[in-house]
């Protein structure tokens, strides 16, 4: 099951009012628990920093372990300073045995890695500067 499928399943459960679901099959199990309750009114909602909104680099496409070095080859996927094209693989996101490509969102030059090899990252985490 992919991260996208799990996200869809969680959204469907929340929309249907299902608070808990557990799936199991050979070599895989998943348990989702969704808490429902009264929303507490917030006095103020802090705005995201403007510098974060202006970030024009490579972000994590999901949750997993960020790999600068490809786990199967032992070689760096891409070195900082190299020119990259939109859609080109610049890193790998590992989720268990699955490897997902981290791709450049635009043409440019790959800047400094903002996450270390082996770091656990979440959706949208900045991974590389794109110059």
Report on this structure.
With 131 residues, the chain is mostly beta strands. It contains 2 helices and 10 strands; from the N terminus they run H-E-E-H-E-E-E-E-E-E-E-E. The chain has helices at residues 3-16, 50-53, and strands spanning 20-25, 28-33, 58-59, 64-67, 83-84, 89-95, 98-103, 108-113, 120-121, 126-130. 14% of the residues lie in helices and 35% in strands. The model has no long low-confidence stretch (mean pLDDT 80). It starts with a helix and ends with a strand. Strands 3-10-8-5 form a 4-stranded antiparallel sheet, with no helix packed on it. The protein is elongated.
What is the structure about, briefly put?
This protein has helices at residues 3-16, 50-53; strands spanning 20-25, 28-33, 58-59, 64-67, 83-84, 89-95, 98-103, 108-113, 120-121, 126-130. With 131 residues, the protein is mainly beta.
Produce the secondary structure layout.
Layout: H1 3-16, E1 20-25, E2 28-33, H2 50-53, E3 58-59, E4 64-67, E5 83-84, E6 89-95, E7 98-103, E8 108-113, E9 120-121, E10 126-130
Antiparallel strand pairs: 1-2, 3-10, 4-6, 4-9, 5-8, 6-7, 8-10
